[in-house]
Amino acid sequence: METTKKRGRAWGLALTALLALAICGYAFALYATPERASQQPFVSAKGELPGLWLYMLWAHAVTAGTALAIGWLQFIGKLRRSRPVLHRAVGYVYAAGIAVAGVTGLYLACYGNGGWSGRIGFATLAALWLYTLYRSLRSIIVERKPREHGEWMLRNYALTFAAITLRIYVPLAAVLFGVTDTNDSFIVIAWLAWVPNLAFAQWWISRSRKKIQRRPAGRSAASSKAG
C-alpha cells in the first residue's frame, strides 16, 4: 500500500513538472522580450493601455514562468535532504520570481478581463501569492519552523499553478459552453483558476498533519503491546 502511494505521488509530481515546464516554455516563446509580447493578438485586442503595462506583462510572464518551472523541485524530499544548498538556491530564485510576479500581477489585475469580478479575482490571487510567500519565508528565516515553511510553500505553489489551470479552463469554457470571449469567461475563471488549487493544498496539508499526529500514538501502542 505504501509503495503504491509513493508511486502515485511520484507520478503526480512528474505530471506537475511536465505541465509546469510546458507552460514555462509557452510563456518564454511568447513573452521572451517586450517586443515579442506586444505582437500577441490578445495584447492588441486590449486597445489603448499605458506604456508601462506591456513591460509589466513581460516581467510577469517571465518571472511567473520561471517560478512555475522550478517550484516543483522544492517538493522532492530526497533533493531537499541530499542537496540542501541546491534547495536553498532554487528557493531564492523562486522567491524572487514570485515577488516580481505578485507585484506585477496586482498591477495587471487592474486592467484584467472579466469586469470587476475578473479584476478582483486576479488581484486576490496576486495578494495571496505575496502573502503566502511572506509567511513561508518568515517561517523558515525568523521562526525556524521548516514544516510550516513547507506548508506555506505548498500553498504558494498551488497559487502559482493557476497559470496551468487557467489555460485548461479557457478552452474548456469554449468547448463545453461556447464561451470564447475572455471578458465573459474570466468572470468565473479568474476565481476558478486558483481557489480549487488552494483548497486542494489545504486539504493535503491537513491530511499530512493528521498522519504526523497519529505516528507517535501508533508507536506508543506498539511499544506497549511489545512490553
UniProtKB/TrEMBL annotation:
Q: Recite the UniProt keywords alphabetically.
A: Membrane, Transmembrane, Transmembrane helix
User: Where, by residue number, does the polypeptide cross the bilayer?
Assistant: 53-77, 89-108, 120-137, 157-179, 185-205
Task: List the Pfam families hit by this protein, alphabetically.
Answer: DUF2306 (PF10067)
This one is known as: DUF2306 domain-containing protein
Gene source species: Paenibacillus athensensis
The uppermost taxa in this organism's lineage are:
Bacteria, Bacillati, Bacillota, Bacilli, Bacillales
